């Protein structure tokens, strides 16, 4: 089944029609694109399900993980929002839930009292260490163990291209 309206013409993904006409995907491109969409959604659901034993979502786990890997287990909220690709508002709501569990606190930035940092508590660090075992096992089961090392490297390289294209400011900061 074609992914273009009737009467349109196919062209390569690198070209564009006149007057901004849509460039339709070939059947092979469409099949690959749909595999990317469905595969990423299914992977996220599976990783999320694995963390349900700790009553936590993957997005919450990612925040705790970033904090546990940061210097002094603290990050500026605006920086953390960019790292986990969430709006500041959404991160604030998530931080509130994590704070209610005693896993994080919000504190004034050490170097700029106007900013707010999310800080991992001792209890939060204990929890993330426990959850990380489950998460890493799930990553192995759902992606690493079903691919060759070369396939996983190619996937990482391809997604790095997408990341760098969509977030060039982050790329320049590395």
Core attributes:
174 residues, mainly alpha, Arc Repressor Mutant, subunit A
Describe this structure in words.
There is one protein chain. This protein has helices at residues 27-50, 58-69, 77-83, 88-100, 122-142, 149-166, 168-172, and strands at residues 74-76, 104-108, 116-120. The model is unreliable at 6-15 (pLDDT under 50). It has a 3-stranded antiparallel sheet with strand order 1-3-2. Helices cover 57% and strands 7% of the residues. The protein is globular. α1 crosses α5 (122-142) and α3 (77-83) crosses α4 (88-100). The protein has a single domain, classed as Arc Repressor Mutant, subunit A, CATH 1.10.10. By secondary structure, it is mainly α.
Structural class: mainly alpha
Total discrete domains: 1
CATH class: Mainly Alpha
Overall 3D form? globular
Number of strands: 3
SSE string, helices as H and strands as E: HHEHHEEHHH
How many angstroms does the end-to-end distance come to?
A: 43 Å
Instruction: Report the uncertain regions.
Output: 6-15
Specify the helix fraction band: 55-70%
Our Rg estimate from Cα atoms comes to 20 Å
Name given to the CATH homologous superfamily: Winged helix-like DNA-binding domain superfamily/Winged helix DNA-binding domain
- Please work out how many helical segments DSSP would assign: 7
Please give the CATH architecture: Orthogonal Bundle
Strand order of the largest sheet: 1-3-2
| Percentage beta strand | 5-15%
